[in-house]
Each structure stands twice: as structure tokens, then as C-alpha cells.
Amino acid sequence: MNFEGFLTAFVGRTVEAATISQSFTGTLQQVTTTTLQLAEAPTPYGPGATVIVPTVNVDYVRAYL
Description:
The protein is mainly beta. Helix content is 8%, strand content 43%. The protein is globular and about 40 Å long. It starts with a helix and ends with a strand.
């Protein structure tokens, strides 16, 4: 099983995806062979955002139970 195939089990769950320079936390919406898509929750300062991260840039993904 490859990295992208493993991540598909976490679609719909809250995850943290980290790159070398940033960390993103949100609901994993979609995983493709090249990207993963997270829906970040809204903050008091503004609406949430959809974040698309290239899988080659991901250092780790942590799923929250």
C-alpha cells in the first residue's frame, strides 16, 4: 500500500498534515495521487479555508481520534 492509499482511510477525520515549513489541521476531504485536501475550521478572525498540499511536500500526517 502506498502513502496515498493509506491516507484514504482517514478521509472525513480530523488530521494534521505537516510540511517542512508549515502545519495544517482540518478535516481530510480528498486524497489523490498528487495532493491531499483539508478543510480548516473557521477561526474568530475569519472563515475556514480549503488547503491543498502536494503529497511530495508532506513530512507526516497525524490523525486525531
